[in-house]
């Protein structure tokens, strides 16, 4: 549920030491927007610490959380590589620190640093793989099973992530989530 990429985090931490002109650091408080939906993206970000959510606000005003990013996960790369507007908004859930790589520097690293390029390609492949598995699982299994799976992956789920965000991540209403959590036998869920 909360995706991490320790390999990329290690690499970018070392790269920051040798190329400090390429990589900036930014700190954010909880619930701060880093990227706005439908806007230009001028940098790629890699999470150093904290939790960040990537979500789409539909025309009906409802949010659907695509992913939660933890340490080492990157965002903004698709928009930078394709030169498109942001499909989703990206916002902090907790206090967070990110590495920020301006577009020109990111493209330069892609061209000149084979190891960095490979790590980015692997990260993109993992995103596609994860989303395919997640969306098929959410479609094929009952809400109770999906919540149980999330709690096994992330035991502190309900203490760490707001219930509304969990519901938006699962593509269900908050009422449906509360019904599952509070029904008898829910301690298994």
From TrEMBL:
Which domain of life does the UniProt lineage start with?
Bacteria
Per its UniProt record, what InterPro entries does this chain match? cNMP-bd_dom (IPR000595), cNMP-bd_dom_sf (IPR018490), Env_Response_Regulators (IPR050397), RmlC-like_jellyroll (IPR014710)
Record-level GO cellular component terms = cytosol
Under Pfam families, the record lists:
cNMP_binding
The record's listing under PROSITE patterns reads: CNMP_BINDING_3
Q: Which residues form the Cyclic nucleotide-binding domain?
A: 28-109
Against Gene3D superfamilies, the record matches this protein to: Jelly Rolls
* The protein's name: Crp/Fnr family transcriptional regulator
Query: Native species of this protein?
Result: Sinomicrobium pectinilyticum
